[in-house]
Amino acid sequence: MATYDEAAEVRSEDALRDLKLFSTVTQEIRGILEQVVVLKEKTPDDWKDTVQELRVDGSFQFLTLKKLNRMAQIRSKNSKDATAEAKQKLDENYLRLQNLQYEISHLDREINNCLQFKSKHEGVDLVEVDEFYKQAPDEIAKRDLTTDDEHLRMLARLDWELESRKNLDKELKATHERKEALAEKIKKRKQDLESLRPNLDTVLKSTMPLQEALGDHFTEKKALDANARFLPGPLYVLFVESKAFSEACDHGTEIQIGGNVEAAVKAKNLENRAFVDATNLYRNQDDEESDSDNEDERENQSLRRRSTSVSAAAADNKGKPDATAKRHPLYVSLKVSLDAGSENSPCLLLRFYHYRDPDFVSVLPSLELPGKYAGVKNSAVLVAASLLRDLQEIDSVNGSFREVGEGEKRYLWAQRLAGLDATDGDREERYSNMRSVIRLIRHRINARIAVAEQLIKFKSGSIDCDQSITASYAPALSFNLVAWKAIDFSGYCKLAYTKSVLDLGVVSENDFFFLASLQRGTTANAKVAVALSNQYPKKWPLLVVHLQWRGDHTSEEDLDLREIEVEVNCNVPGQIYPRKKLRNALLSYQMYRLLAMLDVYVETGSNCGGEMPSEFPATKLCPRIARGRSRTKPYNYDARYKFQCY
Fold first, then answer.
1. Which of 138, 342, 365, 477 is an S-S bond match for 384, by CB 3.0 to 4.6 Å?
2. Angle at CA of residue 640, ends 613 and 577, nearest 5°
3. Residue 365, strand partner residues
4. How far apart are CA 459 and CA 206, in angstroms?
């Protein structure tokens, strides 16, 4: 029985033939439709039969179109199946290619790993060959076999290294066992000692009256030493040096520690933790470094340096206060008494603070005066902030003191006492510097109190001097001190007659400045600008005179006044300063000498021509030793014969 296989026909027929057949069929259908339209328009007698025939013919043509459509669909399906099959083969081939490439890369890596393989024994620090043959036993050394074979020799050396390390491990374990036993023993003894602490505290409390009676404050010293453990390095150096100096050389100094101890303990713990973290970081990186090659070693070292610096800086910032003017919570207090044997003695309390970044020590002074000094307590020269200015010569030369806070300054001598000055690191030099600073502080307090007492008397118009000295100046004074007031540096600069002094730079804005008014009668007046150095009396006061009598006179144009200033500013200090008992009253002797010389100046004014005013009687005798006009005035006084002389 014959069958129709449309798929076989599709395979046997050509698609181009079907395309041409499709065109032909569509044209025939178009013609049939046109004929039907014409017949319906003209309606001949048999048009219906004709239309029916055309309809049947058109139906057959549509059947042909359907067949062509089925064959086209079959061809499309066959093409898609062939394409899918070809694509599947291509994907299989591409996947096989990728697998091959992966296997190739894997083999390359394995080959490179094999080529670059380094055995761990290369990083093992083996003993030298000669030492190996000396130390290793014969069953390990096998000298007959390993002498000529490098591989066997290396295996033998590794066996000996393993055996040696096993022995060392046994020793290490034995040592750890001994360590644990000792630690347990120490722990037990610590517990025993801690159990004794309450009893010892009770004993110490019961001995407090005895300590007070004997003057040995053992408990206070113990607490002081306990707090000293939390001081920063510079303050600890200062504390130890000051305490040793106080106990061995000077009982007029007292050392204490103040501040927030709890905050200092926290800061100390943070610093210790940061140090441990940095140490562990170094140790871990050193262990990793031993397992790497040379290139990795260099990279690890650079990484270690960077990470260590960062972590150490972070830990440091974590364990310390803010670097912007934040100071350590503890401070060292040094009390310097003027008289060690008196309870009512003036004393200067110095508080030393420590700052970091930059690392320096600052000083905050405060002066404590007993009741008998109440009259001079508010004097400008006794302001605590000014007592330490130019304490040492190097401070005045370098201007080393800098303002840190209100009344708180940093001084070079303080840095030396705290061991922060690299040029003064010797212990003996720090000791001598400590002794020098304490001595200078006492001299400064003595001098300032003496000056303050003199200034109080100057304000009342009186000048007190030793008669043995004033007798060589003049028996009596006619010029009077009528006013005395303090002025600032700007007021001193505004005075016209101080310009030459300022140009020479012999005064500083840190000095004390005063203006004195002198008067004799109603016509002779004088203004005296006084510059008092912080280093008084070591640095002598400077007096500049402006005389208003028969005109204005200053030392710039008047030779006699210049001679007076030379005498007052140079000769008088040269006579007084070597005498230790009188040097602190130097300013009073200068003022007294100035008044005596001004008396001579106005009483001998007839040398310049004109009659003397009746208010200036000639009360002083002066023999003439030569004829003619005298070029100088008889400022010197002969106490023996009681007359003025040249």
1. 365
2. 90
3. 350
4. 56
Q: Which residues contact 340 (CB under 8 A, 6 or more apart)?
A: 250, 251, 252
**Which residues contact residue 292 at a Cβ distance below 8 angstroms, ignoring those fewer than 6 apart?**
300
Helix axes 427-459, 233-248, angle to 10 degrees: 80
Compute φ and ψ for 13, nearest 5 degrees.
-80, 155
Instruction: For residue 249, report the phi and psi dihedrals to the nearest 5 degrees.
Output: -125, -35
421: left (phi over 0), alpha (psi -120 to 50) or beta: beta
How far apart CA 297 and CA 278 sit, in angstroms, is: 19
Return the SS3 of 195: helix
- Answer positive or negative: Cα dihedral of 478, 483, 486, 490: negative
Q: Whole-prediction pTM value?
A: 0.59
Q: List, in sequence order, every residue forming a beta bridge with 548; answer none if it has no partner.
A: 525, 552
What does the block give as tokens for 237? 């150096």
Give the Cβ contact number of residue 332 at 10 Å.
27
DSSP structural state of residue 555: T
Residue indicated by tokens 């062939």:
82
Which range among 9-18, 208-217, 372-381, 538-547 shows the weakest confidence by mean pLDDT?
208-217
User: Is 4 exposed, middle or buried, given 0-12, 13-18 or 19+ CB atoms closer than 10 A?
Assistant: exposed
Q: Which long-range contacts (CB under 8 A, 24 or more apart) does 634-639 make?
A: 634/600, 634/604, 635/563, 635/564, 635/567, 635/596, 635/597, 635/600, 637/472, 637/473, 637/474, 637/475, 637/596, 639/471, 639/472, 639/475
Residue 1 has a pLDDT of 59
Which of 380, 348, 378 shows the shortest CA–CA distance to 365?
348
How much is the mean pLDDT over the chain? 81
Cβ contacts of residue 158 below 8 Å, gap of 6+?
A: 121, 124, 126
Instruction: Answer whether residue 321 shows pLDDT above 50.
Output: no
The answer, yes or no, to whether residue 323 has pLDDT greater than 50, is no
Selection from 498, 467, 430 nearest residue 589 by Cα: 467
3-state helix/strand/coil string of 147-172: CCCHHHHHHHHHHHHHHHHHHHHHHH
The CA distance from 160 to 141, in Å, is 8
Q: Give 481's strand partners.
A: 518
CA 191, distance to chain mean position in Å, is 42
Q: Domain map of the chain by residue range?
A: 6-102, 146-203, 207-260+329-458, 460-645
Closest by CA to 511, choosing from 574, 450, 438, 451, is 451
Give the DSSP H/E element, type plus range, for residue 355. Answer: strand 347-355
Instruction: Using alpha carbons, list the distances in angstroms from residue 194 to 198, 199, 206, 567.
Output: 8, 10, 19, 75
- Give the separation between CA 39 and CA 16, rounded to whole angstroms: 35
Q: Is there a contact between 598 and 547 (Cβ–Cβ < 8 Å)?
A: yes
